Amino acid sequence: MKFSKSKLIKLIKPSLEKLGFTEFKDSKGGWQGIFCKKLGNGFYLTLGLTIHRYYDNAFTADYYLSKTTTIGATWGDIPNESYKRPSFLLTDLERSIYPENEINVKGVYDIWWNGNDQKSVSDFLRVIELTEPRFINQTDLVEKITQSQEVKILSNYCMKVKSIVATNQADGTYFFLPEKEVDGIPIIWFKASEKVLKENNEIINAHKVRRLAADAYRQNKLDNA
Question: Which of 123, 147, 171 is the last residue before a domain boundary?
Answer without folding.
Answer: 147
